[in-house]
Amino acid sequence: MTSAAPVPLLADLTSRARAAAHARASACPCGAATLADRPDGLVVRHAQTVAKAHAPGTDPAELTARLTLAAHHPDLLVPPLDPSPADLHGRLVTFWPYGTPVDPGDPDAAPWKAAATLLARLHRTPAPVDLPAMRGPVKAAQAVARLRAAGPHPAAAPVLRAWATLPPWARAEAPMPYARTLCHGDLHLGQLIRHPAPDGPWLLIDVDDLGTGAPGWDLARPAAWYACGLLPPDEWTRFLTAYREAGGPAVPAEGDPWPALDVPARALTVQTAARAVTKALAAARPLDEVERSVVDACDRMATVPPQLAQDHAK
Predict the structure, then answer these.
(1) Are 89 and 12 in contact (CB under 8 A)?
(2) The domain 107-313 is classified under which CATH number: 3.30.60, 3.20.20, 2.60.40, 3.90.1200?
(3) What is the reported pLDDT for 246?
(4) Of 15, 234, 270, whose CA–CA distance to 156 is shortest?
(5) CB under 8 Å to 268, separation ≥6 — which residues?
(6) What is the three-class DSSP state of 235?
(7) pLDDT tens digit string along 71-127?
(8) Given a cut of 60, is residue 161 above it in pLDDT?
(9) For 52-80, what is each residue's pLDDT tens digit?
(10) CA–CA separation, 58 and 93 (whole Å)
(11) Which distant-in-sequence residues (6+ apart) come within 8 Å of 143 by Cβ?
């Protein structure tokens, strides 16, 4: 597989991870692995230490604010080994303890209840005044921009039509509602690990999109999967019930949650579909069944206006 990262960056990041791991433990088992290799993030592991090169152009002050918050809330977020990012080949680099990720091969063990409880507690945590906005809508807008730049595809039209129905805040064109609610910004099961490994409590990782904004965005991906038929109803119910029982403020304590979730869920559906079509174009392959299902959802969304909860319409 071709690396998305420049070769010197990958080599030097691996070296930094090795050095950090050996500094943490005198008897450190050797062996490095690349955990993620994307244009917006390179992640490598050496023993019990993880090093991440963040996306080009990441704002150092904003990242530092996010790292500081994670360091102050180790019961919610895996704390960084150092709250100050380093520089490597013009990229900001951070170091983290390794944790046990969710097993993608065991969907029945997916920690939906733990994820919901962590989110509710995060949403109830006071946000520091210097914390930037949650980047969820920005990432959705970036996915749509990449789709537009990728070239023509029959599935692009329904995705772009669905995008056009969303309110400006969901397209990163206006401030978000609930501007002082602390949000993760990119919640999915890949953002949870057990720390300390191998069987510590579940904690959230990846602070790149952490910030203040609309808490419904953090529930949007499972809500979108449920609406598209990709998440079984019992798992969605377990997730939503756990969030409510933990006092999460994104939805009413009882009754229909959808007016508060409809717009974020639509935005995440568009983001997912835009990424799927862009990847299919790059690989010169047809859409698979799951990718087609989210594009079909966009097609339906384009003909039905989104529900707007009163607070979210302001």
Answers:
(1) yes
(2) 3.90.1200
(3) 98
(4) 270
(5) 140, 217, 220, 221, 223, 224
(6) helix
(7) 999 999 999 999 999 999 999 999 999 999 999 888 888 999 999 999 999 999 999
(8) yes
(9) 999 999 999 999 999 999 999 999 999 99
(10) 10
(11) 270, 271, 274, 275, 278
DSSP string, 61-128: HHHHHHHHHHHH-TTTBPPPS-SS-EEETTEEEEEEE--EEP-TT-GGG--HHHHHHHHHHHHTSBPP
183 falls in which pLDDT band (50, 70, 90)? very high
Q: How far is CA 41 from CA 143, 147, 171, 272, 275, in A?
A: 15, 19, 23, 18, 16
Q: Architecture of 7-98 per CATH?
A: 2-Layer Sandwich (3.30)
Going by C-alpha positions, the residue among 146, 143, 148, 150 that lies closest to residue 281 is 150
Q: Which two tokens stand for residue 251?
A: 């939805």
pLDDT of residue 313: 35
Which of 293, 217, 292, 302 lies closest to 262 in space, CA to CA?
A: 217
- Cβ-contact 272, 224 below 8 angstroms: yes
The residues facing 84 across adjacent strands are none
Give the start-to-end residue ranges of the domains of the chain.
Answer: 7-98, 107-313
> Cα-atom radius of gyration of the chain, to the nearest Å?
19
| Cα separation, 144 vs 266, whole angstroms | 13
* Strand 41-46 to 32-38 pairing: antiparallel
Query: Whole-angstrom Cα distance, residue 162 to residue 258?
Result: 18
The DSSP H or E segment spanning 54 is strand 49-54
Q: Look-up: residue for tokens 């799951």?
A: 290
The 3-state secondary structure of 237-271 reads HHHHHHHHHCCCCCCCCCCCCHHHHHHHHHHHHHH
